[in-house]
Every structure is written in structure tokens, then in C-alpha cells.
Write a structure and sequence with these properties.
The protein is an alpha+beta fold and about 290 residues long. The protein is built from ten helices and eight strands. It folds into two domains: about 55 residues, 3-methyladenine DNA Glycosylase II, Chain A, domain 3; about 170 residues, Alpha-Beta Plaits, CATH 3.30.70.20. β2 and β3 form a beta hairpin. About 30% of the residues are buried.
Amino acid sequence: MVLANIVQLWQDAWPAGLTMLALGTGFAVVLLIASIKLKVTVDPKIEQVHQALPGVDCGACGFAGCAAYAKAVSADPELLGKCAPGGAETAGKIAQILNIQISSSGGLVRPIVHCRAHTDDKQFYAEYDGIMTCTAANAQPNVQACNFGCLGYGDCIRVCKFDALHIIDGLATVDYEKCTGCGACAKACPRNLIEMVGFAQENMMTVACRNRENPKTTRQMCRVGCIGCKMCEKQSDIFKIEDNLARLDYERYQPSEQAETAMSKCPTGVIVYRGKSAPTPRKSAQKPVAAKE
């Protein structure tokens, strides 16, 4: 009798059990598919940056916590150095993870082209018709009157993997929105016109010239070249004249009234800003150079 009851109970229960098994299997499959479809892929670099941070979630960086800051700085390296508890050591670790360079002051390293002469600002001796590279042109005498200025044939452009350089009216020009500071352009320039500089500010002041000729010669061959007049040096001690050329001490540069005065008094307008939001350089007070031959 007992055995019969057990058999009857089994016969009554197995359809329900089978139904529950099928439902359970179905739900498991649905959850598996959902987990695959809805999975959020985290960039490994963001995880590495997060691990490099102190993990105190203090919010001093301006973000909700270390995780939020890790995501933000990975997307925008300009935020580097915002972690006060981690300081320079943490900034250095993050820079290494993101493969970017930083200066001793903690600013991102970016290129500055030490020339601002466009085609109409330069004197040419003859039209160059050789191999259209700066390296080839630089090997020829008298391609352009200034032996220190940008040749404009784009060697720097060809080595840039980020489309961050363009030749605009004969002058290599950096797109700081795209630039990563890799330094390839500086190595490619045969005239060493491109210098990697620590941008302590979003826009850095610079002397956009490398010409070391005497003032009279410079006036004859370039409208916007430095003539070594010492006007800037008299206004601010961050400028120094060496070999007829003004140089700016980037390590000491901070925005100041004296520096702005030096810029405004420069007769050729060779002192300019470079950076993401740099203002358009003012026009030179010098007369245009002689017509091209």
C-alpha cells in the first residue's frame, strides 16, 4: 500500500518537476545571454590608472572618487596632476600608463614650432623644385633667405600618427587638440625648430623664432623674425638675448603683466602664445620683405 502511494505521488509530481526544470533552464539561458549582451567592457588602462591612485576617494580632484577620476584622466590627459594626495609620484605613474610625457613642473609636454613666418613673411632667392621634403631642401643652399625658418615641406606631418600637424600657408602648425606629445615631429625637423616644452599653462608664451642673424639681415629676409632688440628683456627677466635671439625660460614662465608688456612691445610680434586656446598672433609692425624673385 505504501509503495503504491509513492508510485502515485511520483506520477502526479513529475510533470510539475519537469516544468520547473525547464523554466529554470530557460531563465539561466536568458540571464547568460543578458550578461553577455549587457556586459560593460572596461578599458584596461582605466583599471591601471585606478590602481595607481591612492584610493582615498577624497574628491580633491573635482570628481566623485578615484574611479571617476581614473576614467576622466584616461580620456583627457590635461587632467593629469589633479590628485593632490598622490602628488607628482602618482602623476608620473599615470603618465607612464597613458604613454604621455610630463615636465618637471607636472605640465604635459607639447611641441612648440619656433617660427611664425608664413609664405608672405619670407624672402626667397629662387623657387625650389627638388625633392619635396624638408630634409632634402635643407641640404640645398639658399632655398629661402632664412636658414633657420620653417621650410614647410611637411616632414613633421608625415611622422605624426595623430594628424596633429598641418602646413598652413608655408608654416608647420600644431593642432593641440589632437597632439599627444609623442615628440616624433621634433625628431623629424632637420632644422630643430620644434621643441618639446612642458605646458604649465594651457597656453604657453614663446619666442617663435630661431634666427641668429644680425638685426639688419633679419629685417631683410623675414617680416616676423626676432631682431634681438632687447625690448622683451627690459620688461621681464624670463627673457634673455643670446646670439641676437630672444629666449624664454619655460621653467620660470608664469602669466604676468611684465610678460604681457614684453609681448605687446615686441616690434616684430615674434612673441606669441601656443596652445589649445591661444589667441591669433598680432601683425608685425615691420614692413613686408622685398618681393620674391
